[in-house]
Amino acid sequence: MSETPPNTLQYRFDGPEDAPVLILGPSLGTTWHMWDRQIPELIQQWRVFRYDLPGHGGAPAYPAGSVADLAERLLTTLDTLGVQRFGYAGCALGGGVGVQLALRHPERVASLALIAASPRFGTADEFRQRGVIVRTNGLDPIARTSPDRWFTAGFAAAQPAITEWAVQMVRTTDPGCYIAACEALAAFDVRAELGLIGVPTLVLVGSDDQVTGPAEARTLVAGIPDARLAVVPGASHLVPVEQPAAVTDLLVRHFSTAWQPAHDSTTGQTAVPGIPVRAVVSAPPQPVPIAEIAPAPLVEPPQAMGRPDPYDAGLKVRREVLGDAHVDRALSQADDFSGDFQEFVTRYAWGEIWDRPGLDRRSRSCVTLTALVAGGHLEELAFHTRAALRNGLTPDEIKEVLLQAAVYCGVPAANSAFRVAQQIIREETTPQE
To answer: I need a labelling partner for 15 at 20 to 30 A (CA). Which of 99, 298, 313, 339 fits?
Structure first.
């Protein structure tokens, strides 16, 4: 166990001190206990390091702003312990951390296993919507529906104790850290970088995973040069919990045979690691090779001399505030007549003004809502109410903004605004069962 400064992670070790280190990374809403049933087998060959995400499992609530931030906190933790090289297996968000490590610090990663992972987890809108629900209703609605996302119906019915454990695990998570993790997943997208992952990789997925299923797994395998796919039958998203024996066997086989030797930059030699190899008792499902062509990496055009064009930054901010669906719809409807206006709005409203550092996005949302009430722009008020929720305003705070606007913009204008905002808030904050 560990005491945890803000730039590190809560962790624990199991297994012999002189064995190679194998790291197990958790999924959003879980703790290191999701790996409990893998530990007895794995510690026969490795010193297993498990960590908790911020605010999970009683870990200090220091929210992480991105998946890359989580990866850096993990490396800082390992540096303090003197761990330089390791194998890494991560589930879902934990898999995203593993991808970041393999991309940014490949010299540290001997071998990689990505479980229920994806190069892009759903859409940014889905995770920001989840953050709005948690901010408004707390974690209970998310906790109650977690078993539906994590387990097959048969497993959930047959294992009520594990199902209740899953619900309580989410309920006891810090809401602010959960929301921050949702924002991190919303921004995570490494599809164009998969070809740069140079370590042996096992991609493991449950056959019935409806969150990050076989299609996402095949995308990973198609993009990572040295990757193999294993599909575990009868398992959903938390496959290490639902099918622990199969996952354990696959991990033992992968890390016993695909541990990449460390490269010594001073001598040009590679050291052969002393990793014991033993026979796997039960035969795991054979990984199925996937023959798909990975999409070509995106090539960014060279930046023009002088001041950077604010269009790309504006498009990023516009998507983060209004949502991908809204922006995609607006851009797809643009033609020769309206295209210049869409470019103008993206470049100047979003790239020049919304991206300025002088006000945070919550404050800009307050100003925007007031201005739209004053102008009677109810259609714009609707999607900026949705944006305000994404930017961190609560329904009560939006109510206060509209009450303030009623004094200075007039009761009739505020009456119409309340009607529009009330409908949007109901749609955005009603938990999805």
So the answer is: 99
Q: Retrieve residue 256's tokens.
A: 């016993």
**CA pair distance 116, 412, nearest whole angstrom:** 52
CA distance 264 to 212: 37
Note the pLDDT tens digit of each residue in 367-377: 999 999 999 99
| Apex 384 CA angle, 381 and 386, nearest 5 | 115
Q: What is the pLDDT of residues 246-259, one digit of tens each?
A: 999 999 999 999 99
What is the Cα–Cα distance from 104 to 291, expressed in whole angstroms?
26
The strand pairing partners of 11, in sequence order, are 51
Judge whether 23 and 89 are in contact, CB under 8 Å: yes
Q: How far apart are CA 112 and CA 22, in angstroms?
A: 10
Q: How many Å apart are CA 59 and CA 245, to the nearest integer?
A: 28
Contacts of 326 (CB under 8 A, 6+ apart): 383, 386
Q: How, if at all, do strands 270-271 and 262-263 pair?
A: antiparallel
Q: Which two tokens stand for residue 424?
A: 């949007």
Judge whether residue 147 has pLDDT over 90: yes
| 268 Ramachandran zone, left/alpha/beta (phi>0; psi -120 to 50) | left
Query: What's the sign of the alpha-carbon dihedral 145, 151, 156, 160?
Result: negative
Q: What is the DSSP letter of 16?
A: -
Burial (CB count <10 Å: 0-12, 13-18, 19+), residue 299 = exposed
SS3 state of residue 148? helix
Helices (H), 26-174: 39-42, 67-81, 93-104, 124-137, 140-150, 153-158, 160-171
